[in-house]
Amino acid sequence: MTHQYDFLVIGSGIAGLSYATKLARHFESNGEPVSIAVITKVQADETNTKYAQGGIAAVWSKEDSFDKHIDDTIDAGDGVNKRHIVEIVVREAPERIQELIDYGTRFDRHGNEYDLAREGGHSDHRILHFKDITGAEIERALLEEVQRHPSISIFTHFFAVDLITQHHLGETVYRYREDIRCFGAYVLNTRTGQVEKFLAKTTMLATGGIGNIYQSTTNPTIATGDGIAMAYRAKGICDNLEFIQFHPTSLYQPGKKPSFLISEAVRGFGGILKNADGSTFMENYDPRLSLAPRDITARAIDSEMKRNGTDHVYLDVRDADYDRFLEHFPNITQHCLDIGIDVRRDMIPVVPAQHYLCGGIRVNEWGQTNIHFLYAAGECSCTGLHGANRLASNSLLEAVVFGHRAYLGTIENLKDAYIPDNVPDWDDSGTTHPEEQVLVTEMTRELNSIMSNYVGIVRTNRRLRRAYERVELLYREHEQLYRESKVSVPISELRNMINVSYLVIKMAMSRRENVGLHYNLDNIKA
């Protein structure tokens, strides 16, 4: 089956939905016909956005300033950030957030004023939030806004397999060819098992993160690096994948996936990191104590666990005003109660877990990739905002700012877009349904083990080499299985996770200095 649209959006989180909404409002307000397809591999609200707890950062009070937010972002990013991108995002933040409010997002207030929280790495209170489920509230408001636009069609349970470029027209496409074009994607209808063509003048990748290449992650199970892997296979350029952010405080529940996040805002509210004996330790690592940026805090916790031979540390909120804590963090409070932790008398056991990717598909200030008519926004992209470590609550901000900027770039370049009439259908002749799903399951477990043990918070050259060699073997085994098999979601997700893991390892091996989230013990010796 062939679908043809003006615009194809792959992903239904804040980046994809804000982009689709802007396009719809633009053409509908001008009375111009337009068709926009949004595809998502499960239900529309199952996104990384939905799981974001803390909030969205912006200069909102008179006491704060753009310069302070810019400096905080660059300080957290260890100076690897692109300063002009940081300035763009910070200065455009209030207008973009006002649009979210206009769509119906209900940020918490005290009277007539918004309740601005403070999180690790921030020098002021600038986090707008809705209790401790900010991402879910933004997702709700955006989905309701999308449903007001008849020009937007949402396809749930559709899994993007590969981007369509000149490669599929019989041409040779190499990574630094300057005229690569994207014409849409081959997409698996998971209800029918058939791969369908989605042709479009412009395609947006808004596919979120890569968390499930690791054993422990706060990301939902859908976060398998699909957009990054598809772009890379289509000869897109990727940057900074060595910068994997491990959130310092996920709830310690061995074997549970995804890990439950104890928001950064809990430490901003007064939560203090402690060892089992009640002793504090952050004073040994950073003068900002429990409000240090995530890379420093995660390494400090990792160091304390290794030093003490423990599986976790604790976050102590027992001295906090419980009524106010419950008001701010009802979801966290209830989740802890459900497993027998009463935050009024018990410390919360926490451990670092993979949380965010600071790199991704390289884009310019308009969200454009090196492939013409292919845009990327949100966690799958690398804008240069985060540098070597993301500042808390800058992720939702980046997504909504670049959703808007990608919309502007799309409109500017649309006159040159076209869809060729000779794109072939998906060809899976000679393939069969794999009889042994256990192969995919076991390869996924092995990949998770490799990445967690060798490419985690602290790395060494030997660990990275071992990871590279083992992922190379997995790649060869999987490629043979993939070529022989009908496309399925598990086999395709594993393909993407192997591709992305390879990029993470290669870029970590190439990074010769310790900066931000990349910490290699052998770089210290050098």
From TrEMBL:
Domain Fumarate reductase/succinate dehydrogenase flavoprotein-like C-terminal as annotated: residue spans: 445-522
Pathway where it operates: Cofactor biosynthesis; NAD(+) biosynthesis; iminoaspartate from L-aspartate (oxidase route): step 1/1
Cofactor(s) listed: FAD
UniProt GO MF annotations: L-aspartate oxidase activity
Domain of life of the organism encoding this protein: Bacteria
Positions of the FAD-dependent oxidoreductase 2 FAD-binding domain: 6-396
Gene3D superfamilies: FAD/NAD(P)-binding domain, Fumarate reductase/succinate dehydrogenase flavoprotein-like, C-terminal domain, Succinate dehydrogenase/fumarate reductase flavoprotein, catalytic domain
Keyword Oxidoreductase among record annotations: yes
GO BP terms in the entry: 'de novo' NAD+ biosynthetic process from L-aspartate
Catalytic reaction annotation: L-aspartate + O2 = iminosuccinate + H2O2
Keywords: FAD, Flavoprotein, Oxidoreductase, Pyridine nucleotide biosynthesis
UniProt keyword Flavoprotein, yes or no: yes
GO annotation, cellular component aspect: cytoplasm
InterPro entries listed in its UniProt record: FAD-dep_OxRdtase_2_FAD-bd (IPR003953), FAD/NAD-bd_sf (IPR036188), Fum_R/Succ_DH_flav-like_C_sf (IPR037099), Fum_Rdtase/Succ_DH_flav-like_C (IPR015939), NadB (IPR005288), Succ_DH/fumarate_Rdtase_cat_sf (IPR027477)
Main location: cytoplasm
UniProt-listed Enzyme Commission number(s): 1.4.3.16
Subcellular location: Cytoplasm
Protein family: Belongs to the FAD-dependent oxidoreductase 2 family. NadB subfamily.
Functional note: Catalyzes the oxidation of L-aspartate to iminoaspartate.
NCBIfam families: nadB (TIGR00551)
Name of the protein in question: L-aspartate oxidase
Taxonomic source organism: Siphonobacter aquaeclarae
Record lineage: Bacteria, Pseudomonadati, Bacteroidota, Cytophagia, Cytophagales
